Queue: 2 jobs
Job 1
Amino acid sequence: QVQLVQSGAEVKKPGSSVKVSCKASGGTFSSHSLSWVRQAPGQGLEWMGGIIPIFNVPSYAQKFQGRVTITADKVTSTVYMELSSLTSEDTAVFYCARDRGGSTFDYWGQGTLVTVSS
Amino acid sequence: DIQMTQSPSSLSASVGDRVTISCRASQTIRNYLNWYQQKPGKAPKLLMYAASSLQSGVPSRFSGSGSGTDFTLTISSLQPEDFATYYCQQSHSTPPTFGGGTTVEIK
């Protein structure tokens, strides 16, 4: 059974960066794309970007281009999402999700709450 | 980006009711449409993919239909565990985009 386990909650200052991890187990890590999805409090779901670890080439949503970096470590089966220049509007739960093909997300991490506050 | 619009944004229903949620895409997406269920404090869960295919392990009271721009998720007989928020998502084009969600509440 595929499991995605994310790092714990973070509190950050405006202007700083946050790096969230997502460790995969139980499946073929390298061959599936892993994406990051943001959910602001009480709001909907927003795709930020993804990466196929075997190719290690990320793809980003235009909205986050220049501010997000997604990387993968095939040795530890872990994907990272770093978001910079944080503002209060970045306060959200961030999910990693496995793309089984064609942007269909079949497994999700438990979510990581990032709070941006001065 | 393809815009996804869900209606209604919320509804109240009773156990045993038939519930229908609509989703409309801003341009044709053929059948590249997925549905997710999300309960408070939990990650979304894939229910349906390719508009009408049931994800493994999902009860058969869930069904999906539609193609092109208009889609529907139907719950044939609402159960207590079905009270949640439902999202549609297009997988036709990058970036994948989600509808605003429909919250199913207990009447």
Job 2
Amino acid sequence: NAGVTQTPKFRILKIGQSMTLQCTQDMNHNYMYWYRQDPGMGLKLIYYSVGAGITDKGEVPNGYNVSRSTTEDFPLRLELAAPSQTSVYFCASSLQGNYGYTFGSGTRLTVV
Amino acid sequence: GQQVMQIPQYQHVQEGEDFTTYCNSSTTLSNIQWYKQRPGGHPVFLIQLVKSGEVKKQKRLTFQFGEAKKNSSLHITATQTTDVGTYFCAFGSSNTGKLIFGQGTTLQVKP
């Protein structure tokens, strides 16, 4: 099992550009999440999904969108990138609620 | 919104010394999870505590959940350089699975 796979690992965007961060898992987990981590800080929840076709906002959803058309994939879309979106983005999954997360290795995004 | 406070923010110890990080909430938690993140890495799940007063051990790591389920601690006995990293506590919702993370405690170990 590959676990949770995130692509790309690194990306530099110019202000106003858009991009999609990819996340896929092969563990048949129902629950998937997107977090961002700013330097020296904890993790903030952006969006989450409890199953295919179901998504909901987390603590910091502004400037982002998600979709969950399959159990495996949970892409995060950034529209009109801003410097405040410079961060490390982690995708995670869990089999059910109240289970430990499996995290991907992260995408380090810089907006200039 | 509901949150947890984690202390200390940083801790530097000599190899062989013990280390403890604390997680405190103003409200009762249904469960608490602990994660470790190595420098430059991603968080890795360590354990989940659910019961009041629960104590669990993993080799040199001891995890506790308070009797009132409002606090938790992670204690490392005789630290090693491999223990370096940031330790996060997190609490969550069983319905949605979403976790709220503490700010983390970063541990440095001097050999």
